[in-house]
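Take a specimen:
=====
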Amino acid sequence: MADAALRLQTLFEQLLGAPLPVRIRAWDGSQSGPPGAPTLVVRNRRALRRLLFKPGELGLARAWVAGDLDVEGDLYTALDLMAGLIWERGEDARTLVEALRDPEVRAAVRGLLRLAGPPLPPAPPPEEARRARGHLHTKRSDRRAISHHYDVGNDFYELVLGPSMVYSCAYWPSPPADGGTLEDAQRDKLELVSRKLGLTPGQRLLDVGCGWGSMAVHAAREHGVHVVGVTLSHEQAAYARKRVADEGLTDRVEIRVQDYRDVADGPYDAISSIGMAEHVGAERYLEYATDLHELLKPGGRLLNHQIARRPQRDESAYNVDEFIDAYVFPDGELAPVGTTVTQLERAGFEVRDVESIREHYALTLRRWVANLEAGWDAAAGRLVSAGRARVWRLYMAASALSFERNRIGVNQVLAVKTPDSGASGLPLRARTWN
């Protein structure tokens, strides 16, 4: 009898201690769960083996990336329903160990073991980052982590990001439904950064984690500054150098494959770090802040644009998201915005402004997801593997929801290397950036 879906639903509800908000369709054609809800499709028994041998988020991620699990219906709704169940229950949710004390749950697990077939753990999908031994955030490990995320093909990023090739939160004047375009919003973000830094012709700007060169080109073309952009991605650097040459800006923009810790040609008038500091890690963050402080001239400004997580009651209990760590940003870490501000101040900066643009990132991510879905046939299997495309779709959609629900945020922190005189060089009224 085809009853795998009902068994799966029973197990999940016993583990979660609450009704399952999505429908399930199993490989045997059976379906169970609330009618009309998004459907979690369990395509084969291998999905169960992944979950049984790696319970929790990583097992689910492996099954998703491999195509053993899928969602029919609106992906955002499915993710929101499942995430809402977990977040609302919080610390009251039943752990796996607690659930297994229940005889009914143990019986369901034994049934799943029989359904799953031979008890051999499937190999992780090839898109999973290889975990290296040793300390995190050495120059070597950071190069490897950056390459995993960014060296997957510039054509793929062009499809997802659009013509702006900016891989960070855009700055929307109004919701996209009102007619705003992603390209306009990304241009406005680059201009906002430029105005906060007070860029004027002839100044020197260091763009840390320069990506595909968008900020460097904008600052040189629109504000007449001389820019050094550094990245650890060879593919990004090649793309950025071509953009600089096409714009006729080779006399004002230099793109280097270089670790920020190796930049030694300061002082700079300004430093932009846009979506890069998430890769630094808590252990190295003070070093990062101190290095940038030393590279600035007195009175120089830093604009640090960084994703933040909500603080925890016990910060020592913070764990990196397993899916993100294994498939998206290996070794990436998020910190509360207060921790970031404190570290910048410890390095000697005077923090002058913190602007949250959390809702802007949700809008940006939904546009990226739409771009990927519109170009899915080109992306999956031609530009990147189908598994890689599935990684990006899941992480961007889930991230959009996390920003919308205030589970994570993003902040622009403006800091100054204020000289002993105390003259910051900033306007008396906040946010009149000139």
